[in-house]
Amino acid sequence: MTTITLVQGDITRESVDAIVNAANSSLLGGGGVDGAVHRRGGPAILAECRRLRASHYGKGLPTGRAVATTAGDLDARWVIHTVGPVYQESGGDPALLASCYRESLRVADELGARTVAFPAISTGVYRWPMDDAARIAVETVRHTPTAVEEVRFVLFDDRAYEAFSRRLG
What we know:
Layout: E1 3-8, E2 18-23, H1 32-41, H2 43-54, E3 66-70, E4 78-83, H3 94-111, E5 115-118, H4 130-143, E6 150-155, H5 158-168
InterPro entries: Macro_dom, Macro_dom-like
Organism: Streptomyces plicatus
GO molecular function, one term: O-acetyl-ADP-ribose deacetylase activity
C-alpha cells in the first residue's frame, strides 16, 4: 500500500527516486515548478528534453501524459515530466488532471521508483482551484494501483499544504 505524506517546501530539495515536474508541453523549461526543476537540475535535464522533442515528442508532450528524464543535479534519479491542464473560467477537465498523476505513477513503476515527489499540478499559472486540485490528486493517487511505496506531495505554501491536508484527513 502506498503511503501518502505531505511536505511544505521546495520540491527541488527533496531526496526521492523521482521528482514530478509540472512541465509545459514544450519540455524546454518555463516558470514555477518547471523553471525551478530545470534551474536546480542543471543542463542534463534540458539536454534530454531536447532529445525527446527531436524524437518522440516533436509537437510537445500532450496534456495528461508523462515522460521521464535524468534528474541531473537534483537529489533524485529521475524527473517525471507531466503537462497539466489549464483551468479557465469555464472550468477544466478533471480527467486530464487525474491523468497527470496516473501517468506519472505508471512511468514511476516502469522505472522502478519507490519514492515519488509531486507538486500541486496545474495550480500555479494554469490556475486550477487548489481545493479541487487537492481532491483530484489525493483521490487519484489513492485509487491508482502502483508499486510506489511513498507518494510525497511537496507543497509550496500554507494554502496548498492546508488544502491537501484536508483531503488526506
